[in-house]
Design goal:
198 residues; DNA-binding; 76% helix; homodimer
Chain lengths: 198, 198
DNA sequence: ATTGACAAACCGACGGTCGGTTTGTATTGT
DNA sequence: ACAATACAAACCGACCGTCGGTTTGTCAAT
């Protein structure tokens, strides 16, 4: 189907980078193959040599963005969990969502783009990402419970699902809010959630 | 631009109904003008006589769906607020989200479709819907505060924004979860949110 | 004669396909 | 040691069907 070469192929990286740039400049829907061809200097055939479809290309970028987020999160987790002082109850979770909020816009754009595909295959990919993120969330909630940071009465799975749902909601509201003020406001909202949970 | 006739024009209603059906059957992205033409038996010119663009057509359906939701919600509010017994703290809000969750799938599909447009005009419409829903939410939270159902210490605006964000997140997760079980699970998650808030 | 309500032909742009060409890289014969 | 051969990977660009949208035409009602 695709992936004929290794993923760190320089030409392929050029395509990915150009597409990511274009998405940030023009948005998902307005980024066409012609744009990508012009920016990379490659041909249509070259692009379809590395990728089976435009959707797959966008999907690959989403995947890498999600992985970047998770990596960033893991760093925060390990830093906070090993640290002596805690920012308060749910401090780790707070940091995670804060970092997620300030994440690159590409993630949000492609997230919504893929959601609109109405394609079972794409949705299953998104669903697996959701499941993975949730299972990771469960792990740190349980970690927090063993450390005494989070009350043991809380159902870790449900709480993780709650945070995931809220995280997705934040993605949407951030995409809707254009001004910087509104983004700050959405940050406040999350703080309120943390406060009421603490 | 559009709306040359009254909105209850039978031909126009036929177009709206057929489009809504198709969206439910095939999803937003796979519903083309050709499909709508074939189902209605009309021509392309006829559709563009009533509507300026495909996006406007989809947007009109979204708008009516949102209005249906709000109407349904208002009924619940007035029923609960006037009733003697309350289902508990935030009972009204709980009911609202429950009703919203069981809402027709068309709303979710078009919601995501419009989000993916990267169009400022479309986004401003969605944003105005968000603002309206939030302001309505503020009203019932304040109502609940005067009635003593909701603690007066809560910032009504932030709390309303929190619920809106969560509501949008639910839309996304429901769209991602295909099985019935997962939908029920997302309902549980909301109950957890209510519990922790109470 | 003008206008509203449609039909039908038409347009450019899009994503995707396909046959063909170039480039790189082993493998072989001498 | 060095061509010659073989073959696959990388790449090109003309071509296709379909899409959303536009323009022109028709015809009954006013």
């Amino acid at each position: 189907m695709s992936n004929p070469t290794s993923h760190d192929n320089p030409t392929f990286q050029t395509i990915l980078l150009a597409t990511e740039e274009l998405i940030l400049e023009k948005g998902c829907r307005n980024t066409t193959l012609k744009d990508i061809i012009e920016r990379t200097g490659l041909s249509k055939g070259a692009i379809y040599h590395y990728v089976a479809s435009k959707d797959e290309l966008f999907g690959l970028i989403l995947k890498s963005k999600i992985e970047q987020e998770n990596e960033k999160f893991n760093q925060i987790v390990h830093h906070q969990m090993s640290g002596a002082a805690h920012a308060g109850q749910f401090g780790v979770v707070t940091e995670f969502f804060h970092s997620r909020q300030n994440t690159n816009d590409v993630g949000n754009l492609i997230f919504i783009y893929l959601l609109s595909q109405d394609d079972e295959k794409v949705k299953s990919i998104l669903n697996s990402i959701y499941q993975y993120s949730k299972s990771t969330g469960i792990q740190w909630i349980e970690m927090g419970q063993t450390n005494g940071v989070i009350p043991p009465t809380i159902d870790a799975e449900k709480m993780a699902a709650l945070f995931m749902t809220f995280s997705y909601g934040l993605r949407v509201t951030q995409l809707l809010s254009s001004s910087e003020d509104e983004r700050i406001a959405s940050s406040d909202i999350f703080k309120l959630l943390i406060q009421t949970l603490s």
